[in-house]
Amino acid sequence: MGLPRTKLRLPASSGTTKIYDRPGGTAHWIDGEIDENVFRDARLGKRFRELLIRMGGGIGESIPLACQDWANTKAAYRFFANKRVHEGDILSGHFDATRARFEAARGTVLLLQDTTEFTYQRARPELVGITKDINSGKDKKGRYRHHTLRGILMHSSLAVTTEGLPLGLTAVKFWTRKKFKGTAALKRKINPTRVPIEKQESVRWLDNLRQSIGLLGKPGRCIHVGDRESDIFELYCLTHDLSTHFIVRMQTDRLAGDGDHTISDEIDEVAIKGLHRVEVRNENGDPISVTLEIRTKRVHVLPPIGKQKRYPASDLTVIHATERGTPKGRKPIEWKLITDLPARTRSEAVEKIDWYAMRWKIEVFHKILKSGCRAEDSKLRTADRLANLMAVVCILSWRVFWLTMLNRTAPNAAPAMALASTEIGLLDQLVADAGNRRCRSGTLSFYLIKLARLGGYLARSSDPPPGNTVIWRGLSRLTDIEIGLELGMAGNVGN
User: Fold this and answer.
1) How far, in Å, are 18, 365, 441 from residue 92 at the CA level?
2) What mean pLDDT comes out for the span 407-430?
3) What distance in Å separates the CA atoms of residue 455 and residue 478, rounded to the nearest whole number?
4) Is there a contact between 16 and 489 (Cβ–Cβ < 8 Å)?
5) Distances (CA, A) of 114 to 169, 234, 255, 404, 468
6) Shortest CA distance to 82 belongs to which of 395, 373, 382?
7) Mean pLDDT, range 134-145, rounded to an integer
């Protein structure tokens, strides 16, 4: 691979004045993910578009480096600090685009929810807030030291197909804390089961679910997937009220039946339905194959004692998957899932286990935010400004993730599904076709492999499919080349 010696030429279909044009006159891919009209001032909408393009060309770079000059950098700072700019406005267009991709997709869609933290050190930490207190070891006298982490929290909902293709975000909530004593400390003062969910931080799981279903509009196709933190009885009831579904990992061994025993008591008496072989990674990151024993039963689940007057009992399915044998050097795998969906047979239970295993996709998305886009490197001083920045970075991170997974789930699709005509034309000129033998010429995968090669992917026959890192590197390089081409065509080079 290497840059050609001849002068770059635009494809005939792309026009001669703008590098972002697609066939039919549609502009940059970003235009499909933003809604300029949602801003109260039209100038803010235009600034947002320009800012997103610049940051998209410098993924992971600082705002000054992405903007290149003081005028654009100052405009970016003013945009993030503007009181009329909110993260909901920034993400509005992306939410609409997610709904369109949801409509175009077929079958079941998983709504993955999770919370992540962004940590920052500031001279005036009160402007950012805190996330939590951590134990930072003992001092010389043996006393435990506590360290307060400053930053913001983000709770996001990501829609993915059952094949793992991320369709986009459906809900995002940002917040920070003025104080945090920890769950254990709070439980010593008050029983959380007697506190209305509306007064707890956990209400974010319900809020995101409502917003997601309201956005997509077809609750029967959606399944909420969450970890043990989302094991909330109110969520069980809300999914029923919204006519949607859920699969979560159990955290609480709730009362079951007539109330004289628990869920575990019932599932322990169930015979093994069958075996399921899965591949997981050990502490060193090496893949290992394990065999799971599967038990499943429909259980009459009671609400917490303090909430039995407010919520009815529910008939739910419990799936218990435990690793066969005693592994050396680690704890055996044990997943106890609860869902409103049926799992009468082994195959139905395995299907639900596989859907829950998709939950790690949202963790990958958060990793792209932090590692690829370096969201925690920002120097913005207040929580509001950081939230606006995170909203922008969410769109960029999603596209990286989307392109990565498109290559694996829809390799033979048309390249125009994800790339602009000028991007396709430039890739043809920048990256040779040789060495791209694993995919059919002219397909989406053919061009995404070229994009990854631009980011350092070797495309050897033994190499796994390109990951998020080489995709965002390729995107960044390609955008730089597009901008250089535009400047050259305008006659500004050397002037």
Assistant:
1) 26, 19, 36
2) 87
3) 9
4) yes
5) 12, 17, 26, 21, 20
6) 382
7) 65
- Provide the total of helices (H) and of strands (E) in the chain, helices listed first: 14, 12
The percentage of the chain sitting over the pLDDT mark of 70, rounded to a whole number, equals 84
Residue that has been written with the tokens 């992405």 in this structure: 66
Between the CA atoms of 44, 46, 47 and 52, what dihedral angle is there, to the nearest 10 degrees?
120
Q: What angle in degrees, to the nearest 10, is found between the helix axes of 203-216 and 87-104?
A: 50
What are 428's two structure tokens? 């043809």
Classify burial at 413, counting beta carbons within 10 Å of its beta carbon; exposed 0-12, middle 13-18, buried 19 or more: middle
DSSP H/E element including 249: strand 245-249
Tokens of 162: 């059952």
* Cβ atoms 94, 390 nearer than 8 A: no
Question: 347-399 pLDDT, tens per residue?
Answer: 999 999 999 999 999 999 999 988 878 888 888 888 899 999 999 999 999 99
Q: How far is CA 276 from the centre of its chain?
A: 27
Q: Are strands 314-323 and 287-301 parallel, antiparallel or unpaired?
A: antiparallel
Distances (CA, A) of 456 to 114, 264, 395, 420: 31, 50, 23, 21
- pTM equals 0.85
Phi first, then psi: give them for residue 406, nearest 5 degrees. Answer: -60, -40
Structural Rg of the chain based on CA atoms: 25
Both tokens of residue 326? 């005693």
Question: DSSP E strands: which ranges in 252-397?
Answer: 255-256, 261-262, 274-281, 287-301, 314-323, 334-339
Give the per-residue pLDDT at 477: 84
CA 393 to chain centre: 11
Enter the tokens of residue 464. Answer: 């796994």
Cβ contact 318:250 at 8 Å: yes
Taking the C-alpha atoms of residue 197 and residue 282, their distance in angstroms, rounded to an integer, is 37
Whole-number Cα distances in Å, 224 to 319, 355, 446: 16, 10, 34
Which has the closest alpha carbon to 85: 378, 369, 391, 380? 391
Backbone angles phi, psi at 176, to 5 degrees: -140, 170
CB half-sphere exposure, 92, CA atoms < 13 A: 14
CA angle 270, 274, 279 (to 5 degrees): 120
- Strand pairing of 261-262 and 255-256? antiparallel
Q: What is the DSSP string of 178-243?
A: S----HHHHHHHS-GGGS-GGGSTTHHHHHHHHHHHHHH--GGGEEEEE-GGG--HHHHHHHHHTT
SS3 of residue 302 by DSSP: coil
What does the alpha-carbon distance between residue 1 and residue 121 come to, in Å, rounded to a whole number? Answer: 42
